[in-house]
Fold D-ribulokinase.
Amino acid sequence: MPRAYIGVDVGTTSTRAGVFDEAGTLLATARHPIRIWHEAGDIVEQSSEDIWQACAKSVRAAMAEAAIAPGSIGGIGFDATCSLVVLDPQGEPLTVSTSGEAQRNVIVWMDHRATAEARLINETEDAVLRYVGGSISPEMEMPKLLWLKRHLRASFDAAGHFFDLADYLTWRATGALQRSTCTVTCKWNYLAHDGGGWSAPFFKRIGLSDFVAEKYARIGTEIVAPGTRLGEGLTPAAAVELGLPQGTPVGASLIDAHAGGIGAIGGRDGAGGPSDVGDRLAYIMGTSACIMATTKEPCFVPGVWGPYYSGMVPEFWLNEGGQSAAGAAIDHLLKSHPGHGEASAAARSEGLDLIDFLERRIIARAGGASRAALLARDVHVLPEFIGNRSPYADPDTRAVIAGLDLDTDIAAMERLFVAGLCGLAYGLAEVIEAFAAHGVRSSIMIMGGGASRSPLVRQIMADTTGLTVALPQTKEPVLLGAAMLGAVAGGAYASIGETMAKMSALGRKSEPTAPDMAAFHARKREVYKLLRELDRGSRAAMRSVARG
Ligand SMILES: Nc1ncnc2c1ncn2[C@@H]1O[C@H](COP(=O)(O)OP(=O)(O)O)[C@@H](O)[C@H]1O
Ligand SMILES: O=C(CO)[C@H](O)[C@H](O)COP(=O)(O)O
């Protein structure tokens, strides 16, 4: 019987499941929303139970659509945002919320409550920090764990397990406590190279010696490569919930952006066969954006997370730059514009999503995706609403918008939208330039994530960076990356490397266009730099003034 593989992706806003055949062809997908609590003070929380139930519903819906026998599933893999899950010793949720609600047991990656703790950790200048670009981010797990210890001691002490969300999902599916090299290397300061492991001096220095004393029992004692077959496969309970046979192989997980990277960068390019992953950047743009480079030797790029050994492609190093708010910044710009109500109603009447509606109008009016950027000639956006991840590693950066007028119509909203995309593209270009300055050079960038479907986004990114921007052949590279984990766990392929070559391929490409657009973007980037200086200068000017 031909085998199929399931990938489950937990993004910030929803869970999705995809069923793929052994060649990587997508047979069916389904999506389910997840709950999220936002509170003042950069608090963003979720519920691991809600997320697991949403995963189960997505898998069952995708299987119903694929209309294949559950017994034909040869393996399943999971990816998720890098959020922190807290459970008691019996595996029940423990609150991370000052509300005390047990169901709120996930500190979401974008929650910046631990900015002060990140600063304290950075002040130690511990050698481990070299492997996160020289500066830990409040989006990583150690600052969050330190926050819990300092501010919610009861939960910190009562916890039996601290998981990255992707590892929680495999634990929930199989009962196995192994963690993936991807999660712990990229988010937990674990060193996967040269027998590094957990660093006891680091934990002692940052005030988390608890983990050393308890021999890392709550954060993971066994670290395995993504795709490693876990436990005895699906437990009886998980099998019932997912509607799959007990014992279905489950592979160790990846973080969501990294699943997108695996699903995107290793594909065949036409007849040219498998390619050099070192020449290919992955840009995964959803709520946030991650720009990832793969190298044979470690490259230290200040302000860019990594280098992480086996953080994404096994036995390669990973540099991971990023933008904390990407799609989230665009969503926010659109929602806060006075034309939002009118534009949403017009989009609905055409049966389109708001962004698709705007894009069609913009591209038609401008006479192409490349020239659409000209609409943003006089509006400029530094879209860093929740800080700069890379290359400045400054979580206190905030957005700046210049060139607003009193226009409230849809055309004004379009200008702001395009200006926001240009701002994101200039942020991306800064990361790519930081890569290049430290020896990480690539000629092609492969895009995944929700925003990659947009021809406007791809063209602006190509024109701004000067790189060829390619899509993977599959329209769901993140789900494919997760399904590849299932294929490796199920024994269809021997390694992630082989799986990438067999299950994926490159698709459509956008080339950088006319030199006049390059000149336009170069000029507009100068304004972008002014906005960055304005943000820095205004924060510096107000630093000595007490908060109201
Ligand atoms: N054309 C576009 N331009 C910019 N952002 C877009 C575009 N299309 C979708 N997005 C953004 O992508 C995000 C959704 O992507 P997705 O990968 O599904 O998110 P996540 O996995 O983070 O939940 C939303 O913030 C949405 O606004
Ligand atoms: O930090 C990340 C990866 O290292 C991701 O950006 C984070 O997990 C959120 O992902 P998404 O934007 O797809 O919801």
Remarks:
- The mean pLDDT is 96.
- The chain has 18 helices and 21 strands.
